[in-house]
Amino acid sequence: MTPSQDNNSNKSNTNGGGMFQFRFWFKWIILPFTIGCILSDFLPQEIADRAVDILLYYPKSMLECSSNQTSTLPLESSSQPLNPSTDTVPEMQEISEEEDDDDDEEEEERDAISRALGDGDLCFQRLLKSMAKEDAQVANHLMTAATTTTAQEEDPVGDSGVILVMHRNGDSEGCGVSVDFLTQLRMALLHLPECPVAFTKYQVESILSSTFHTMFTFCDSQESIENRTGEEGFLGYCDMGEDKTPVLLDHDKLIPVATSPDPDAPTFLPCHFHSREGVRMTSFQKLMQAIVDKYKEVPQEICEEAEDGMQYCYFDDKEVHLYAVPAGRTFMFAPSYVGETFDLPHIQGADPDKPVYMKVLSVSPRVFDIFNYFTRDESQGLVDKAIAEKSDSHRMKRSSTGASGYNMNTRRTSENGFDTHGKTAQAVKR
Amino acid sequence: MVLTLMEKQPKLSRGKSIILFAFFFAENQLEAFSFCFCGLLLLTIAIVFHSFCVSYRRCFSVLGFDEYIESHSDGLQILRYNQTKAYTAHMDWIDDDGQQDHNYNSAGKGGNRFATILLYMTDLGPGDGGETVFVNAPSIEENPKTYKEALKELRESEHAKLFKRDSWEENMVAKCRSSLAVVPNSARAVLFYSQLPNGEPDPASLHGGCPVLTETPKWAANLWVWNTPRAGFDGAPMNEKRMAEKRARGEDVPTSTAPPKKRVTFANENGKEEFANAELFYEDSFWAKLGEGDPPQAVNSYEGQIWNIQVDGKVVRTWQVGKPEKQKYTI
Fold it and tell me: What structural domains does chain B harbor?
């Protein structure tokens, strides 16, 4: 149990002056910070671009007093047409024509894309702008293909070679494949009644769950009838039912998904989505970046010898794998063979020069070696602290077992202590 | 206003637009350059802060959490196994038979241990024992031994004298040499799951601590992560059946297994010179300055928690939080 600051006793003065406060922050914090980002080029381009987006869009929304930019999304509205009169697209379209680039060719390309995407594609345009320039160009290419072709006549994402493979949590075998998911996602965003300045991860997960419900009908629950909701398909997997869904601390923030515009239609809790390496897809940018990164990979040529002695070669598919985790559940790695590796570049170990990665030791049970997770110095630090510990609750003593109390187990002859708030313990925990 | 300016400069690059932006907002050139200076300063702070955050996100990031949630983990359990010491095969998933206020049924709405990260802090060789054995998983050695072969090998070795014949420790050594076994090395970390994706306990995760055969003690640590807040924390799932039984008996039914918070105030009131640079620590974690002139610190704490006053890195005063709802400690 961790102590916390008693805020009731340490009240601080808060300034409620909205516009004054905004102007102050904008003038002295946001603006200088963004300039710093642009001028120094130290930060990744996407962060700098994101800041620029906030600079360009947020002031206008503030001036127009549109305070409900991140209101709850009526996701069931996917079957409702977008209402141009209530949509904020025209003004944002205007902005998109104003911003960037001294490269005429690129400007024309963007204009063409904007025209192709249509006025309702504000969210997609923002998505593109939030990405690094080079990646945004690739994304533009994919977007254009997804917009100007239909799945029937020419498969846009299939042509790019990127395929989305959906997995159930912890399952190395995919349960569904899609080659037109960009089109589907674009349509889902297109039908939103408004586009928030920034989506929360719960909005993203709700929209993705709603979109994937119609795409991955085979990714249904594999639980027995009594252990799942009546809903078939993807949402029946995402929402395991009240009796099978642990209520986590953020449960109230989940945005349920409806399969019908009927207000009385049942709603379902959404999944959350992770990459093979465990990264949670908390934004559309992350998902789009994964697609772009995969698109940019050089395809691997695979050659196999057939029974007739001839050698056949083909290019391996570029696949983006997503792992859907039901509401209230936790992501679990999905090993497929002993020796398989999982690179974890998003994890910084104790030594920043050494990459953290995992290697599968066993598929069942799921056991992994984690390399470069902590250092020998940290290791020694934990031992030294345990030896020096004097408090009765934390010092080394004969180990016990069980959910409560101190129960000696004759087949557990080790000693143990606890390190709840040591510096090294905190570092390796978090 | 801003948009009007931008409309007149549609072909500007993003960088130029921003610089123009700065001058538009600035009242003179000096202020514009001060914007740039502030920007670089804030950028430096941001980079330092970013590095700090990244280094503190290891365990939960590895497991796919996008944020650290204290209540989803136990304290780090440090283990020492001296020669011959061991832990028979067990699961980290806690089976309580429904007798606790906490709901441990992770296949339903309950919470239990979900994953374990095992940290090893000792270098042991292949013949030194002390491995972590997964008794239901096959060995990944090139030439794996059968249980009988391993038992015969042990009984013919110098280590035979360490254990009684047919003792559980002797059986474990043989099991350790014929199943998947992780050999301890300092700074080696291993992850395994105690639950299946649907929350059911995974019987394949049955594992044990093999007897240490060498005189060098084995040091290791358990980092347990739960699928919900664990017992004793806000938001931990309650055993509804047990609560209903308590209600039927007319007993008080707690709404949470979390212990009651104590409002504790720490203050430096006596102005003694020896405490002029005092600092308040929760156990080893710095909390706040409590030197001369520093404001009192009001915190929510819990009975039994340890708070320390340090001066120049040395603990000079220790308090343990007691039972009263409101408490005050002064130096």
Answer: 2-55 (no CATH), 70-226 (2.60.120.10), 262-330 (2.60.40)
Alpha helix locations (H) across chain B?
Answer: 2-7, 14-25, 29-55, 58-62, 147-155, 168-176, 240-248
Count of A-B CB contacts under 8 Å? 374
Contact flag B25-A31 (C-beta cutoff 8 Å): yes
Query: Parallel, antiparallel, or unpaired for β B218-226 and B113-120?
Result: antiparallel
Encode pLDDT of B171-214 as tens digits: 999 999 999 999 999 999 999 999 999 999 999 999 999 999 99
pTM of the model: 0.70
Q: Answer whether B62 sits within 8 Å of A347, measured CB to CB.
A: yes
Report whether A193 contacts A77 (CB < 8 A). yes
Min Cα separation A154/chain B (Å): 35
- Determine the structural domain holding residue A400 and report its residue range: 376-429
CA–CA gap between residue B215 and residue B318 (Å, rounded): 37
Complex ipTM: 0.71
Asked whether residue A390 falls in the same domain as residue A242, the answer is no
Give chain A's domain count: 3
A325 belongs to a structural domain = no
Whether A369 is covered by a domain: the verdict is no
Residues A53, A152 within the same domain? no
